[in-house]
Write a structure and sequence with these properties.
- The complex is a heterodimer.
- By secondary structure, chain A is α+β, with helices and mostly antiparallel strands.
- Chain A is 22% helix and 20% strand.
- Chain A has a single domain, classed as Roll (Ubiquitin-like (UB roll)), CATH 3.10.20.
- Chain A contains 3 helices and 3 strands, in the order αββαβα.
- In chain A, strands 2-1-3 form a 3-stranded antiparallel beta sheet, covered by helices on one side.
- In chain A, a hairpin with a 7-residue loop joins β1 and β2.
- The N and C termini of chain A lie far apart (50 Å).
- Chain B has a single domain, classed as Ferritin, core subunit, four-helix bundle (Ferritin, Up-down Bundle).
- Classes of the chains: A alpha+beta, B mainly alpha.
């Protein structure tokens, strides 16, 4: 199935906003010759069971990702700072939906 | 019910043809797209054939001459361009037809109103590919050109009145021509010339006269049911 042509097609990342969701979340990736076809392929691959009401496709090449090698300097320092989490407050009575 | 058989067989036969791409499509993404379209059509076929009788009996136990689909939908998949040309001709027709049927209050109005959205997507899929193949490489252009020419003679039959469909057929034909012309022009292609049906096709698909590739397709489609009648999963 993955013929020669497939190799020439760029990769796209697919983001789907669910029926009740507020934000688009990453669903996966696919190959397509251009953005319009990527959108249609995304519709067929990621929303055929009514998963979404809105789609974004982004060229994978446009995404700058953090490197696994830099994982420690990037994320480790946050691990021992519990005061950054809002867990030390007492929630006053009467406050709902928090 | 003549019309239910005609429209139901169109959907059933094209669904089977598209299903033949499973495992053979040029890329995985396109395989899923074609299978999706095939499943939409199969859903339509089930509703339509159920209006005419028992869906399984009609699909699996009729002989070739009892099928009422147009000859266009039974044509083999050919190369990808042939499949796209067949999709462009047929889904443009089917969308216009369902739009008309949905406006009326006949027995097909509820199905047509629901299915017209599916078919609009099928037509869009065919248009997108027609644009890319026509305006792509020299080879893709030639293949699309060849496919459009090869299937052109099967398009005349689409606009022969189907008994039981309250549709203005000549207006449908005019709208079809202008839509197809518009897409082909954008794709750098032109409307094929030549006769719209072969002299040999005097009876045509709606009367049960089918082309040679239809028999083998039917044999494959019906084989399992005929070998194991009443089998269930």
């Amino acid at each position: 199935m993955s013929g020669e042509g497939n190799g020439a097609w760029p990769l796209w990342e697919v983001f789907v906003r669910g029926r009740r969701g507020l934000a688009h979340t990453h669903a996966g990736s696919l190959h397509a010759p251009d953005a319009e076809m990527a959108l249609r392929n995304a519709r067929d691959l990621y929303t055929r069971r009514s998963e979404g009401v809105s789609l974004w496709v982004v060229p994978s090449a446009s995404i700058t990702a953090s490197s696994p090698d830099e994982k420690d300097p990037f994320f480790e320092p946050a691990a021992d700072k519990p005061y950054r989490h809002p867990t030390f407050y007492e929630i006053p009575e009467g406050v709902r939906h928090l | 019910m003549t019309a239910a058989l005609a429209l139901g067989d169109d959907a059933l036969v094209l669904s089977h043809r598209l299903g033949e791409w499973a495992g053979h499509a040029p890329v995985l993404e396109e395989e899923v797209a074609l299978a999706n379209i095939a499943l939409d059509l199969l859903g339509q076929a089930r509703v339509l054939l159920s209006l005419a009788g028992d869906e399984d009996e009609l699909a699996y136990l009729r002989e070739e001459r009892a099928f009422r689909n147009v000859q266009l939908v039974e044509q083999p998949n050919g190369d990808f361009a042939h499949t796209i040309a067949r999709q462009l001709y047929f889904s443009t027709y089917q969308e216009l037809l369902y739009e008309e049927l949905a406006r009326g209050d006949g027995p097909f109005a509820p199905l047509a109103a629901k299915a017209v959205k599916e078919v609009a997507y099928h037509r869009d899929h065919a248009e997108q590919w027609t644009l890319r193949l026509g305006d792509g490489t020299e080879e893709s252009h030639q293949r699309m050109r060849r496919a459009l020419d090869a299937l052109w003679r099967f398009t005349g039959e689409l606009f022969e009145p189907v008994e039981g469909c309250e549709v203005e057929w000549s207006a449908l034909h005019g709208a079809w021509l202008s839509r197809v012309t518009a897409v082909l022009t954008r794709a750098g292609l032109s409307l094929p010339e030549g006769p719209r049906r072969g002299a040999w096709a005097a009876g045509a698909g709606r009367q049960g006269i089918h082309t040679e590739p239809f028999g083998p397709m039917l044999a494959q489609m019906q084989h399992l049911h005929r070998s194991h009648p009443g089998a269930a999963w």
